[in-house]
Write a structure and sequence with these properties.
One of its GO terms (cellular component) is cytosol. The chain is of the alpha+beta class. Helix content is 36%, strand content 21%. The chain has two domains: 2-43, Orthogonal Bundle (Arc Repressor Mutant, subunit A); 56-142, 2-Layer Sandwich (Alpha-Beta Plaits). The strands form two sheets. The protein has a four-stranded antiparallel beta sheet with strand order 2-3-1-4.
């Protein structure tokens, strides 16, 4: 059963809008079995949600995406969890990861302007008692996101030579 679950998960990760009948045919199992497995994985929080990847630039919506490295002092008996929870509860925060290296947490967020993102860092993130330092990086262009290539492939720039 684990193999079936893994195959379902791999397919859903790249195409969450798949027709269950088509997926059942691809996997060689009954559609009811696929539907039950998906329902069980949703209950078990293996499947945590479904998302649509949007190219906001093409939609004409101006957004600024930032990656913020955060160095913190872990709290006794709670490590990084309490600080991470405080940060991920801000609505503008898209993700918080515990990372290795020179910083402890990686925070991703979106805002309407550079100033809005900078204000979040200076007014909400930096004043948190356990935060020691931050480093902010702004995304200038997305080439690939969540496994999806966002830039069109260029046609070959070679000139066609004919005799």
């Amino acid at each position: 059963m684990d193999n079936l679950r893994n195959e379902i998960l791999r397919y859903l990760e790249t195409n969450s809008r798949v027709n269950l009948g088509e997926l059942a045919v691809l996997l060689g199992v009954d559609e009811v079995k696929v539907a039950n497995e998906i329902a069980d994985m949703e209950k078990e929080k293996i499947i945590c949600g479904y998302h649509t990847l949007i190219d906001w630039d093409k939609a004409g919506v101006e957004t600024v995406t930032a990656l913020i490295e955060v160095r913190v002092t872990p709290q006794r008996n709670q490590g990084f969890d309490r600080i991470a929870e405080r940060i991920y509860n801000y609505p503008e925060v898209h993700a918080v990861y515990l990372i290795s290296g020179g910083y402890d947490l990686l925070v991703t967020l979106e805002g309407k302007t550079l100033k809005e993102v900078s204000r979040f860092v200076s007014e909400k993130l930096s004043p948190i008692e356990s935060v020691i330092s931050t480093a902010t990086y702004f995304i200038l262009k997305k080439y690939k996101d969540h496994g999806t290539i966002l830039v069109p492939k260029k046609e070959s720039e070679r000139m066609l030579v004919t005799p």
